[in-house]
Amino acid sequence: MGDVSSKQYIDVRLGSNLYGIDIKYIDNIIVMHNITRVPKSQPYFLGVINLRGEIIPIMSLRRKLGLEDDEFTESTRIMIIKPEPSAAPVGLIVDEVNEVITLEEENIEKFNYTDETKADYSEGIGKHGDDLINILNILELIYEKNE
User: Fold this and answer.
1) What confidence tens digit (pLDDT) does each residue in 89-117 have?
2) Taking Cα atoms as reference points, which of 23, 139, 16 lies closest to residue 79?
3) Can you tell me the mean pLDDT for 19-47?
4) Quick one: pLDDT at residue 1?
């Protein structure tokens, strides 16, 4: 055994696609809450929820990634993400949370893009059994750079 480095991800589904979120960013996973809309916010921000007295902004991961709008079902979950220990949490809506998976670094294909074709929100594609899992770059996703 070499010094193979591996990471744990939560495997989530959006539509028919699988995405991986690094487990170190996940603070909590909750069922759908009533979302209070916030006027004039970005289209992918659906509003805020009150979670045990804390106001948490909720982002539609589908809208952020340019997919079709959310369809809320009994499987829909809000993943509470803490991008950094001192940062305010953000909720991401996903269609379904599957399981915690461990991916070895050698099973993740990194993208080698030029700046123009960069896939901003993806760190690469992980291979888990027969599934391909798009590994999300949480920091890029949450901290939108306004250029």
Assistant:
1) 999 999 999 999 999 988 899 876 655 55
2) 23
3) 94
4) 46
Which of 89, 61, 65, 95 lies closest to 77, judged by CA? 95
> Dmax of the chain from CA atoms?
55
Point out which residues pair with 22 in neighbouring strands: 9
| Residue from 133, 64, 51 nearest 92 by CA | 64
DSSP 47-92: EEEEETTEEEEEEEHHHHTT-PPP---TT-EEEEE-SSTTSPPEEE
Residue 62: is its pLDDT beyond 50?
Answer: yes
Question: Domains of the chain (ranges plus CATH)?
Answer: 6-142 (2.40.50.180)
Q: Residue 63 CA to chain centroid, in angstroms?
A: 12
Confidence of residue 143 (pLDDT cuts 50, 70, 90): confident
CA–CA separation, 111 and 118 (whole Å): 8
Return the structure tokens found at 116. Answer: 């123009």
Nearest of 38, 120, 30, 6 to residue 80 by alpha carbon: 30
> Identity (one letter) of the amino acid at 55?
I
